[in-house]
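#lab-general

N.A. 3:47 PM
ok so I finally got the sequence cleaned up, no stray characters, all 232 residues accounted for. can someone with queue access submit it? mine expired

B.Y. 3:52 PM
send it over

N.A. 3:53 PM
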Amino acid sequence: MNLNIIYEDNDILVVDKPSGIVVFNENKFINRSLIGYLIEKYPHLLAVGNYPRYGIVHRLDKETSGLILVAKSNKALYFFQKQFKTKSIVKKYVALVIGRLENEAGEIRTLIGRSPNDYRKQRVYLFGEPGYEGKREAITKYKVIKYFSEYTLVEIMPETGRKHQIRCHFAYINHPIAGDKLYGFKNQPLPEGLNRHFLHASYLKVKMLNEETKEFFSTLPQNLETIIKNLK
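B.Y. 4:20 PM
back already:
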């Protein structure tokens, strides 16, 4: 598999992940995953971090495309993971959501935890409701890029990194990600030709080990660009 590595130095790789590939497998097989393909090219990644993540700094869902950081040493792994924990890395996504968002900019702030009704999903919990204890805060900011008749194109800036956070949050406000089979609603509209959920990690701003700040960009994949061009 030809992976698009958009940046590399002695400490880190920045990979533009395609849709349809898992970042790492939580079983004994690392092949057919992003880290598996990377280890074929960079065998020393087996010495970074722990199985099954190895040098993976953060994760994207299988169908989500876009930028992901991979550390090339344990020192770099700790350094970049610390930035995620302290929320000092800036992340931006582009998503197409169902319906027309009422506000052109907003913030979704809730607790998130595993759904008791479906182990594959996360669900929103509110302070004080049954089962909220121990759930983790999730904050998602967004602003509208463009309105269409049945959809809204949005830029999303998550301030926390909970599992499925963006997908869960937009389903919670009744505007699920277009094409999302897990969090989408029954009989919701689907853009013609869309065979994945429309979520792309488009931007990262991160401090490097030498204290320099770098920005990385990823444009929408061609299939998502085509979807946008065909919308009304």
